[in-house]
Automatic annotation (TrEMBL), chain A:
Source organism of this protein record: Jacana jacana
Gene symbol of the encoding locus: Got1
Entry superkingdom: Eukaryota
Keyword annotations of the record: Amino-acid biosynthesis, Aminotransferase, Cytoplasm, Pyridoxal phosphate, Transferase
Any Gene Ontology biological process: aspartate biosynthetic process
Protein's name in the database: Aspartate aminotransferase
Automatic annotation (TrEMBL), chain B:
Family: Belongs to the class-I pyridoxal-phosphate-dependent aminotransferase family.
Localization in the cell: Mitochondrion matrix
One Gene Ontology biological process: L-aspartate catabolic process
Catalysed conversion reaction: L-aspartate + 2-oxoglutarate = oxaloacetate + L-glutamate
Chain ranges of the Aminotransferase class I/classII large domain: 30-397
Alphabetical list of NCBIfam families matching this protein: PRK09257.1
PROSITE patterns recorded: AA_TRANSFER_CLASS_1 (PS00105)
UniProt-recorded name of the protein: Aspartate aminotransferase
Keyword Transcription among record annotations: no
Organism: Jacana jacana (Wattled jacana)
Documented EC number(s): 2.6.1.1
Length: 376, 402
C-alpha cells in the first residue's frame, strides 16, 4: 500500500494537519452544509496555485480552472470523462490514450471506464539499463496519432521512481507540441518526491510556459497524509478564461452525476493550511520531513548494498525518486525475498521505500544481497 | 492559436442553483428561499445535530490515523447502514445475503448501483422512474449507460398519488426491466403510497419480474420513525423481492457535505453477495479508489453507540416534527387568510418537499411580488418555512391564488 510510514513503521498524521483539525473542531461557525458542485472555492484556488506556482502566467491571465475531486483518482476520472465527451470531437471514444509502461495499474481502468476504447502504452522503463527509455518514449510520441492523450507522471513516477530530467522533459514537450498531443499530468507526489514543491512541479509548469492546454490531476493523499479524506483537485489550463469557463460548466455536469459535490472535511484542512503563511510553512516542513526520510533510506540502502559488494549497480536506488523503487530484482528473486525473507515487494521488483526503517535497513540489504547472489 | 475547447458548449445553468442565486441578490428583508434542499431550524439556520457534535468530539479525542479505507468503505458503517435499512430482525440481514458498500452520499450510491446494473443486469437497459422524480436521477442513469422511461405517479389534479395510473403503467412495463421507487418522502412531490398501496405495488412488480431499485434518502426524516420510513423496503424484501437500495445520511443526520451514503444489493445467499461485492469494488476503484472517511465514521459512531443512536432518533424525529408542524401551520394560516382552496395535500404530503399545486405564473408572482423563491414546478422546501415566516408565506400564496 502506498502510504508513508515513520521510522517506527507507523502511519504519520502531519502535525500541521492535527493542528488544523483542532482549529476546525473548535470552530462553531462551521457546519456540514453542501459544498458547491466544483468544491470549496478556497481549496480549489489554493490547490491549483500549488501546482502551477504563485507567479504562473496562466493564473495571472485567468485561464485556469479547478475541480475539487475525490483524491487523485477522482480528478483523473472527471478529466477522463470530460475528454471522452468533449476532446477531439464529440464523444470520440476512439481517441488513443497512452499510458506509460509500466504505470499505476488503475490508470488503465480509469480511462476504460470513462469510455475510451483505444488504450495504448508508451515506452518508459528500460529494464536493461534500469532507467528511462527516452528514445522509445519519443519514438512512441512521434508515431502516435495526432491528438492522442498522454498520461504523464508529474514527478516520482509510479512504480519506477524514474523521472525525466528537465532536459528530457523539454524534448518530450517539443514532440508533443509538434504532434498536437494532449498532456494529462498525474501529480500525486508534489513535495513528497524531492522535498520541494516547486522542483516537483517543474514539468507541469514548463508545459504551461510552453503554451500547452493541459489537465493536471492532483492528489493531497500523500503530501498531506490525508489518504482517507479523499482530497484531490483537477487543474485545467486553457487558452483563455472563456474556454476554461465552458469546460468547467461541462465538468460540473459530470460531477453532478458522479458524486454531486465533494466531501468537505479534507478540503477544509488543506485550504486552511495553504491560505495561512504560517501553516503553509509548517506544512512544507512536514512534507520535507517525509521526503527527507525516504531520501535517507534510499542513500542508506544503496551504500549498504555497495558495501556488501552486491553484484550489479545500485545507483538507481538513489537516482530514482519518490515512494517507490524498481529494484531490478527479477520475479524469482522477488519470490525469494517474500518466501524466505518475509520482505514484501511486487513481482515487478517494486519496493515501497517508506517500508524501510533504520531498524530494518541491514536486514533488507542483506536479503537483497542474498537474493541476487543465490538466485539468478 | 485556437483552443481544444472552442466547440465545448456552455452547460445549462442548474435550475435550483439559479433560484438560490436570485434569492441571494434580493434585498427584500422578508425574502424566503424555499428552493433549499437542506434542513433549516426554526430560525432558518443550518442545524448540526447534537449527536453529530458528540460523535465528532469522540473522534477528536482518539488519535486515529488517516489510512485509506477499503474500497467498499468503513465496515462498521456499511454493516450498520444495512441494519438500519433492513431492520435488525431481517432474515436477509441476519443471513448475510446482502452486500453494502459505502457510497458518496445518495448520488454516489445511486451511481454505483446504476453502473453495476449497466454492467451486470443484461436483461434490460431501461430504468423506469416515477413521473416526476428527482431531477438528477435521469442524468445519473443516462451517464451510467442506461435508458430512461417513466410510469405515472403524481396526479396534478389532486396533488396526490395517481395510484391507478401507476399500477396501470407498471403492469405494462416489460418483464425484467428496472423500476426505481422512492422508499419514502418522494422527491419532489412529497407524495408516498400508503401501506396498502405498497402491498399492491409489491405484488405487481413481483408478477412483472422487475428489478426494484429503492432510493431511500430520507429514512427517519419523513415520518420521524426510521422503521416506518423503511417499511416499504422491508416489505418488498420479505415478499422475496431482492431489491437494490441506495441510502443517504445527508438529511437524516445533517451530514450533507460529508457525503455519507451506502449502496446495497440483496442477494440469493452470502456467497453471491461476496461475488457481487467484488464487482462493486472493481467499479468503485477507477472512480475514486476508496470513499471519504469523515462522514461515514460520524454516522457509524452514532449508529453503533446506543446513547448516541437514541439521541439521533430523537433529533431526527424533531426535524421531521418541525416539518410536519410547518405543513399544519401553513394550511391553518391559509384558512385564516380566507382561502377557499383545498390545501389538504400540504399536510397529506410528507418529507422535505411539497408540491403546492401552484402554476408557473403564480410561482412567478410569488417571486416578483413577495420575494418568495421556489422552483417553477411549484415545489417548496418545507424546511425553509419557519414559525416566523409561515404567516407571510400563507398570505402570499393566498394573494396569488384567490
Amino acid at each position: 500500500v502506498a502510504a508513508y510510514r515513520t521510522d517506527e513503521g507507523q502511519p504519520w498524521v502531519l502535525p500541521v494537519v492535527k493542528k488544523v483539525e483542532h482549529m476546525i473542531a473548535g470552530d462553531n461557525s462551521l457546519n456540514h452544509e453542501y459544498l458547491p458542485i466544483l468544491g470549496l472555492p478556497e481549496f480549489r484556488a489554493n490547490a491549483s496555485r500549488i501546482a502551477l506556482g504563485d507567479d504562473s502566467p496562466a493564473i495571472k491571465e485567468n485561464r485556469i480552472g479547478s475541480v475539487q475531486s475525490l483524491g487523485g483518482t477522482g480528478a483523473l476520472r472527471i478529466g477522463a470523462e470530460f475528454l471522452r465527451r468533449w476532446y477531439n470531437g464529440n464523444n470520440n471514444t476512439a481517441t488513443p490514450v497512452y499510458i506509460s509502461a509500466p504505470s499505476w495499474e488503475n490508470h488503465n481502468s480509469v480511462f476504460v471506464d470513462a469510455g475510451f476504447k483505444d488504450i495504448r502504452t508508451y515506452h518508459y522503463w528500460d529494464a536493461a539499463k534500469r532507467g528511462l527509455d527516452l528514445q522509445g518514449l519519443l519514438d512512441d510520441m512521434e508515431k502516435a496519432p495526432e491528438f492522442s492523450i498522454f498520461i504523464l507522471h508529474a514527478c516520482a513516477h509510479n512504480p519506477t521512481g524514474t523521472d525525466p530530467t528537465p532536459d528530457q522533459w523539454k524534448q518530450i514537450a517539443a514532440v508533443m507540441k509538434r504532434r498536437f498531443l494532449f498532456p494529462f499530468f498525474d501529480s500525486a507526489y508534489q513535495g513528497f518526491a524531492s522535498g520541494s514543491l516547486d522542483k516537483d512541479a517543474w514539468a507541469v509548469r514548463y508545459f504551461v510556459s510552453e503554451g500547452f492546454e493541459l489537465f493536471c490531476a492532483q492528489s493531497f493523499s500523500k503530501n498531506f497524509g490525508l489518504y482517507n479524506e479523499r482530497v484531490g483537485n483537477l487543474t485545467v489550463v486553457g487558452k483563455d478564461a472563456d474556454n476554461v469557463q465552458r469546460v468547467l460548466s461541462q465538468m460540473e455536469k459530470i460531477v453532478r452525476t458522479t458524486w454531486s459535490n465533494p466531501p468537505s472535511q479534507g478540503a477544509r484542512i488543506v485550504a486552511t493550511t495553504l491560505s495561512s503563511p504560517q501553516l503553509f510553512a509548517e506544512w512544507k516542513d512536514n512534507v520535507k520531513t517525509m521526503a527527507d526520510r525516504v531520501l535517507l533510506m534510499r542513500s542508506e540502502l544503496r551504500s549498504r548494498l555497495e558495501s556488501l559488494g552486491t553484484p550489479g549497480t545500485w545507483n538507481h536506488i538513489t537516482e530514482q525518486i519518490g515512494m517507490f523503487s524498481f529494484t531490478g530484482l527479477n520475479p524469482k528473486q522477488v519470490e525469494y525475498m517474500i518466501k524466505e525473507k518475509h520482505i514484501y515487494l511486487m513481482a515487478s521488483g517494486r519496493i515501497n521505500m517508506c517500508g524501510l526503517t533504520t531498524k530494518n535497513l541491514d536486514y533488507v540489504a542483506k536479503s537483497i544481497h542474498e537474493a541476487v547472489t543465490k538466485i539468478q | 492559436s485556437s483552443s481544444w475547447w472552442s466547440h465545448v458548449e456552455m452547460g445549462p445553468p442548474d435550475p435550483i442553483l439559479g433560484v438560490t442565486e436570485a434569492f441571494k441578490r434580493d434585498t427584500n428583508s422578508k425574502k424566503m428561499n424555499l428552493g433549499v434542499g437542506a434542513y433549516r431550524d426554526d430560525n432558518g439556520k443550518p442545524y448540526v445535530l447534537n449527536c453529530v457534535r458528540k460523535a465528532e468530539a469522540m473522534i477528536a479525542s482518539k488519535k486515529m490515523d488517516k489510512e485509506y479505507l477499503p474500497i467498499g468503505g468503513l465496515a462498521d458503517f456499511t454493516r450498520a447502514s444495512a441494519e438500519l435499512a433492513l431492520g435488525e430482525n431481517s432474515e436477509a440481514f441476519k443471513s448475510g445475503r446482502y452486500v453494502t458498500v459505502q457510497g458518496i452520499s445518495g448520488t454516489g450510491s445511486l451511481r454505483i448501483g446504476a453502473n453495476f446494473l449497466q454492467r451486470f443486469f443484461k436483461s434490460s437497459r431501461d430504468v423506469y422512474l416515477p413521473k416526476p422524480s428527482w431531477g438528477n436521477h435521469t442524468p445519473i442513469f443516462r451517464d451510467a449507460g442506461l435508458q430512461l422511461q417513466a410510469y405515472r405517479y403524481y396526479d396534478p389534479k389532486t396533488c396526490s398519488l395517481d395510484f391507478s395510473g401507476a399500477m396501470d403503467d407498471i403492469s405494462k412495463i416489460p418483464e425484467k426491466s428496472i423500476i426505481l421507487l422512492h422508499a419514502c418522502a418522494h422527491n419532489p412531490t412529497g407524495v408516498d403510497p400508503r401501506q396498502e398501496q405498497w402491498k399492491e405495488l409489491a405484488a405487481l412488480v413481483k408478477k412483472r419480474n422487475l428489478l426494484v431499485y429503492f432510493d431511500m434518502a430520507y429514512q427517519g426524516f419523513a415520518s420521524g420513525d426510521i422503521n416506518r420510513d423503511a417499511w416499504a423496503v422491508r416489505y418488498f424484501i420479505e415478499q422475496g423481492i431482492n431489491v437494490v437500495l441506495s441510502q443517504s445520511y445527508a438529511k437524516n443526520m445533517g451530514l450533507y457535505g460529508e457525503r455519507a451514503g451506502a449502496f446495497t444489493v440483496i442477494c440469493s445467499d452470502a456467497e453471491e453477495a461476496k461475488r457481487v461485492e467484488s464487482q462493486l469494488k472493481i467499479l468503485i476503484r477507477p472512480m475514486y479508489s476508496n470513499p471519504p472517511l469523515n462522514g461515514a465514521r460520524i454516522a457509524s459512531i452514532i449508529l453503533n453507540t446506543p446513547e448516541l443512536r437514541k439521541e439521533w432518533l430523537v433529533e431526527v424525529k424533531g426535524m421531521a416534527d418541525r416539518i410536519i408542524s410547518m405543513r399544519t401551520q401553513l394550511v391553518s394560516n391559509l384558512k385564516k387568510e380566507g382561502s377557499s382552496h383545498n390545501w389538504q395535500h400540504i399536510t397529506d404530503q410528507i418529507g422535505m418537499f411539497c408540491f403546492t399545486g401552484l402554476k408557473p405564473e403564480q410561482v412567478e408572482r410569488l417571486t416578483k411580488e413577495f420575494s418568495i423563491y421556489m422552483t417553477k414546478d411549484g415545489r417548496i422546501s418545507v424546511a425553509g418555512v419557519t414559525s416566523g415566516n409561515v404567516g407571510y408565506l400563507a398570505h402570499a400564496i393566498h394573494q396569488v391564488t384567490k
